[in-house]
Structures are given as C-alpha cells and as structure tokens.
Sequence to fold (272 residues):
Amino acid sequence: MNEQLAYEDAIMQDAIRYVKEAGKLIMDLINMPLHIQEKKNQSDLVTEVDVRSEQLLRGQITRDYPTHWILSEETDGGREDSHHTLLEPPAGYGWIIDPIDGTINFIHSLAHFAISVGIVRDGLPICGVVYNPVTDELYAGRKQGGAYVNGKPIQVGNEQELSQALLATGFQAIDWKPNSVVVEQIGRMTGIVRSVRILGAASLDLCLVASGRLTGFWHDGLYPWDVAAGLVILQEAGGAITNAAGRPFVLSDNTLIASNGVLHQYLISMLK
Ligand code: IPD
Ligand code: CA
Ligand code: CA
Ligand code: CA
Fold:
C-alpha cells in the first residue's frame, strides 16, 4: 500500500471511531430535557447536543490532525460565505462535519438522524462516514475503495422504470412556506413515481439511495456538511449525483439530484 493510501486509511478508521464516540454521546443525552434554539425559523433548530457532538468531533480531529482544516455546521453555519467556502477550497486535508444531521428528527426522537463526516483532499471528497446511532448503522465510503454499511458492501438499486421509483426530498429552512418549490416538485412526481418521502436527514437519505432502499433523492440549498460524506458513499455504491444541469455535483452547487443512475436523466428532466 502506498504512503498516501495508508495515511487515508488511518484517517478513515479514526473518522469511524470519532463518529461512534459522538453517537454514544448523543444517545446518552437523547432522553435529557433539551434546550432548543431557533436559528432562521421554527424548522431551523439547534440543541446543546448538536453543539456538544460538534465539540467532541472537533476536539478529536484537532488533537490527532492539527494541520487539517475543519468546516462544521454549528461553528461555520452562521458565516455568510459558508455555503460557498468550497468554491475555492483550502489545500490539503479537510473535515466537513454535521454533528447531527436531522436535528428535528432527533428532537422528536425519530430514529432517522446521523453524524456525518466527510473528508476532502485538495477540495475533492475522498472519504465519507455517516452514522445513525439509534439503528447503529454506519455507512462508510472511500474513493475507489467501495461503500459499506457496517462493513458489508452496498450498491444502488436496479429500478428501471419511474413507476418503480421510491424517491425522497426535503425542505431547506427558507423554503418552509406555503407554495414552496418542493411542494410543486412533489406535485409533478405524483402519479408518476411509486412515491415520495420526506425523511429529514439528507446525509442518510443519500446513504439510502447508496444501499438501494431509495431510488433517488433531490434537494435544493443543502450545505457541504449535509452532503460531503454521502456523496462519496453514493458514488462508490454506483450511484449518480449531479446538479440540475446534469453536471457532476460539487459541494458549492445549489441543486442536488442523486439516483441509482438508471433513472437519472428522467429525474433531471422532471425537475427542470
Ligand atoms: C437538515 C436535514 C434535512 C434537510 C435540511 C437540512 P440539519 O439538516 O439534512 O433533511 O432537508 O435542509 O438543513 O439542520 O438537521 O442538520
Ligand atoms: Ca441545522
Ligand atoms: Ca444537516
Ligand atoms: Ca445539523
């Protein structure tokens, strides 16, 4: 194994260890009374558990990898440029963290939330780890190294027809209003695809496409921490992930369309 591969292998193993520790912390706190704060509106929330999970992850990374940069939701999310930080990504290794993806689900004790950690080298996502501490499912993917759930290889589904497609989407906080774009898009899918779900944790939704449980997922206005990890996992599982124009998705893109690949062009044209 060459030196870079061995180094990145060690990073990946550490990332798995860190998310499991964060998962344990979250599960220890899940039944405590939560202090819930609104950010942009009533669907954009943060709890002290999000913050503590993020502190734990940042602490481990800073200690073990002091030369790597970190971008994380609760530290960097307030910065105007955070959505576009990766237009000109810093060189070297970086960690992109969502300490709880699916905060609303976490607050309501719905078992669909995760810790999402993506690792990039010179701006390109190379590893992803997404861990649901309730179901104890850990998805991991490594550029040219495959995608796994709890160590078992995964791949996207084989649905060939829109009528067989189970899709998911979600609302960005600012689109949580009457006549939102998403509601109109779901309307277009109605009666054509098998069904549409709104599950509420983008990182896990991408992993569900990667493991063939969903056929596709689309979403506008996600942040790098929602996507960085799931992107690698989905690609390594054989899926397609593009922007609305069908070009390979990059972390600064606004619209994300992910699928099993087979139905990708249809989804792009339906969402135009
Ligand atoms: C949210 C989730 C949700 C998506 C929202 C995100 P958060 O992340 O990924 O599925 O629809 O747009 O903001 O705030 O729970 O980390
Ligand atoms: Ca959030
Ligand atoms: Ca998120
Ligand atoms: Ca979050």
